[in-house]
C-alpha cells in the first residue's frame, strides 16, 4: 500500500515537473526527449530516483543535456531525492556505439560550460545542434527574422535586433526591447538567438525569463553554489532575458544581474532585454540597474497599425496555401483585431482550422460567428459623431458643415470622407448614416463611399488623408 502511494506521489510530482519543462523547452523538444521518460523506483536509503528512456541514444542525450535540469527540478519537488539516474528501460536492447559525447568523455568545444539549469534555454552552440538536426534549445524554430513582418511600428526594434545578431560588433549595448503584450518582443529575442548562432557557430547563449533567472539564483544561494552560478552565467556570449519587469523588488537578484551585465559588457559580450515598459517605468528596481538597462538602445515596438496588421495576415496566409481566405475577411480581421498581433494571428489560425475541419468556406459571416470572443474584446465602438468630429478637426471645417446643405468643395469633400469612414468603421446602414448627415438620402451616402474608394486608388493625397484619419480613429 505504501509502495502504491509512493508511486502515485512520484507520478504527481512528475506531472508538475513535466509541465514546467514543456513550458521551458517548447513542445517539440519536450515531446522528443522528455515525454518518453518513464519513472522508475526511488531508493530511500541513497535518495536515488531512476528515470528510464527507451534506448541508449535517448538516455545518453537526455543525460548529457538535461541531467542537471532534471536533478534540480526533482530536488525542489522532493527534498528526499538527492540523485537522479537516467538509463535505458530494463529489457530494452542498448544501441552499441551510438554516443553523443566525444570518445574521450569530454564535451564538444562549444559545449564546455556546465549543463543548463531550469530556464537556461541554451546549453550548446549552433555547430553541434546542426549536426543533430535540432534547433537551439529553448528557441522556437518558427520565430526568426524571416518570419517577422516589419512596419512603421516595429522597424527600429527589428533593425536593432538584426544588428545585435550580426558578425560586426553592435554600436550599442545592451539592447532593450519595450512593447506591450503580444506585439513581437519575444519573437525578436528568439530571432536574435537564431541569427547569432548562425553567424557565430561556437557561440554560447543564455535565454530565460527574469522570473526564471531569479529562481535559479535563489536555488544557487540555497545550495551554496553562487560561485558556480556566476561562472556559468558569465561564460555566455549572448544574454537574452525576457519580461525583465518581473525582477522588480528582488534586491539580491537585481544585484547579481547588475554585476553580470557589467562583467559581460566589459568582455564585449552582447545583452538583450525585453519588457512591457520602459526602464524608467520599472518600479522597485535599483537605480544602478536602471542605468545599465537604459545605457544602450531602448527600442520601442508600437501597436501594429492597420497596414502592418494586413501584412502580418498576408504573410501568415502563405502557410495555408490550400485555404482560400477572401480579401474582405482579411480586411475585416485587420481592422477589428487591433489589440495585439498574437490575437490577430490566433484569430486567423482559429478561423482557418474551423473551416478546414468542418469543410466550410472561409467567409465574413463565418469569421463573425466563430471569432465572437476575440472580436468583442478588440472592438472599440467608434461612433459617427466621433468620426465627424475627427474629420472636421483634420480638415479644419466647422462641425455644423457635416449636416449643412452647402456644396462648396472645401465642405463637400470632408463630408464625403466622413460618410466613407462611417460606413467602414461602424455597422450603420446607408440610411442610418444619411440621417446623421443632415437627413441625406441613402443614395448620397453610397455615392460618397464609392467616390472616396475610387479617389484612394488614384489620388495619393486622398489615400494618405484617409489612412491618417483611420489611424487616429482606431488608436
UniProtKB/TrEMBL annotation:
Chromosomal replication initiator DnaA C-terminal domain: residues covered: 383-452
Residues where ATP binds: 182, 184-186
Keyword Transmembrane helix: no
GO biological process terms held by the UniProt record: DNA replication initiation; regulation of DNA replication
GO cellular component terms given for this protein: cytoplasm; plasma membrane
The keyword Nucleotide-binding is annotated on this UniProt entry: yes
Residue numbers spanned by region Domain IV, binds dsDNA: 356-475
Keywords: ATP-binding, Cytoplasm, DNA replication, DNA-binding, Lipid-binding, Nucleotide-binding
UniProt-listed CDD domains: AAA, Bac_DnaA_C
Primary site of residence: cytoplasm
Free-text comment on this protein's domains from its UniProt entry: Domain I is involved in oligomerization and binding regulators, domain II is flexibile and of varying length in different bacteria, domain III forms the AAA+ region, while domain IV binds dsDNA.
Subunit structure: Oligomerizes as a right-handed, spiral filament on DNA at oriC.
Protein name: Chromosomal replication initiator protein DnaA
Lineage per the UniProt record: Bacteria, Pseudomonadati, Pseudomonadota, Alphaproteobacteria, Sphingomonadales
GN (gene name): dnaA
Amino acid at each position: 500500500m505504501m509502495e502504491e502511494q509512493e508511486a502515485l506521489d512520484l507520478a504527481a510530482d512528475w506531472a508538475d515537473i513535466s509541465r514546467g519543462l514543456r513550458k521551458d523547452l517548447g513542445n517539440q523538444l519536450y515531446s522528443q526527449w522528455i515525454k518518453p521518460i518513464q519513472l522508475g523506483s526511488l531508493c530511500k536509503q541513497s535518495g536515488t530516483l531512476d528515470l528510464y528512456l527507451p534506448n541508449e541514444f535517448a538516455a545518453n542525450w537526455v543525460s548529457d543535456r538535461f541531467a542537471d535540469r532534471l536533478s534540480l527540478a526533482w530536488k525542489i519537488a522532493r527534498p528526499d531525492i538527492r540523485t537522479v539516474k537516467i538509463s535505458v528501460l530494463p529489457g530494452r536492447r542498448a544501441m552499441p556505439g551510438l554516443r553523443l559525447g566525444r570518445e574521450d568523455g569530454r564535451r564538444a568545444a562549444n559545449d564546455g560550460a556546465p549543463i543548463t539549469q531550469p530556464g537556461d534555454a541554451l546549453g550548446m552552440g549552433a555547430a553541434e545542434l546542426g549536426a543533430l538536426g535540432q534547433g537551439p534549445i529553448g528557441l522556437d524554430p518558427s520565430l526568426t527574422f524571416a518570419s517577422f513582418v516589419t512596419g512603421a511600428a516595429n522597424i527600429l526594434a527589428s533593425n536593432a535586433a538584426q544588428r545585435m545578431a550580426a558578425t560586426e560588433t553592435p554600436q550599442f549595448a545592451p539592447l532593450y526591447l519595450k512593447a506591450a503584450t503580444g506585439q513581437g518582443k519575444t519573437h525578436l529575442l528568439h530571432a536574435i538567438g537564431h541569427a547569432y548562432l548562425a553567424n557565430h557557430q561556437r557561440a554560447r547563449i543564455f535565454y530565460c525569463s527574469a522570473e526564471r533567472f531569479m529562481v535559479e539564483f535563489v536555488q544557487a544561494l540555497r545550495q551554496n553554489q553562487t560561485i558556480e552560478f556566476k561562472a556559468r552565467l558569465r561564460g555566455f556570449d549572448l544574454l537574452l532575458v525576457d519580461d525583465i519587469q518581473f525582477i522588480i523588488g528582488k534586491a539580491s537578484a537585481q544585484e547579481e544581474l547588475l554585476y553580470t551585465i557589467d562583467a559581460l559588457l566589459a568582455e564585449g559580450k552582447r545583452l538583450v532585454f525585453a519588457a512591457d515598459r520602459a526602464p524608467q517605468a520599472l518600479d522597485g528596481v535599483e537605480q544602478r540597474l536602471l542605468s545599465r538597462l537604459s545605457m544602450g538602445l531602448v527600442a520601442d515596438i508600437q501597436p501594429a497599425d492597420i497596414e502592418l496588421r494586413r501584412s502580418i495576415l498576408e504573410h501568415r496566409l502563405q502557410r495555408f496555401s490550400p485555404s482560400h481566405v477572401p480579401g474582405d475577411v482579411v480586411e475585416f480581421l485587420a481592422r477589428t483585431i487591433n489589440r495585439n498581433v498574437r490575437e490577430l494571428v490566433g484569430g486567423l489560425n482559429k478561423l482557418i482550422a474551423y473551416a478546414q475541419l468542418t469543410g466550410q468556406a472561409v467567409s465574413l459571416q463565418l469569421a463573425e460567428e466563430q471569432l465572437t470572443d476575440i472580436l468583442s474584446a478588440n472592438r472599440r465602438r467608434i461612433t459617427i459623431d466621433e468620426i465627424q468630429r475627427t474629420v472636421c478637426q483634420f480638415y479644419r471645417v466647422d462641425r455644423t458643415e457635416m449636416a449643412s446643405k452647402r456644396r462648396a468643395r472645401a465642405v463637400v469633400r470632408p463630408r464625403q470622407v466622413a460618410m466613407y469612414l462611417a460606413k467602414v468603421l461602424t455597422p450603420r446602414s446607408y440610411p442610418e448614416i444619411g440621417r446623421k448627415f443632415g437627413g441625406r438620402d441613402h443614395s448620397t451616402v453610397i455615392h460618397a463611399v464609392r467616390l472616396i474608394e475610387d479617389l484612394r486608388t488614384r489620388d495619393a493625397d486622398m489615400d494618405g488623408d484617409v489612412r491618417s484619419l483611420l489611424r487616429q480613429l482606431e488608436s
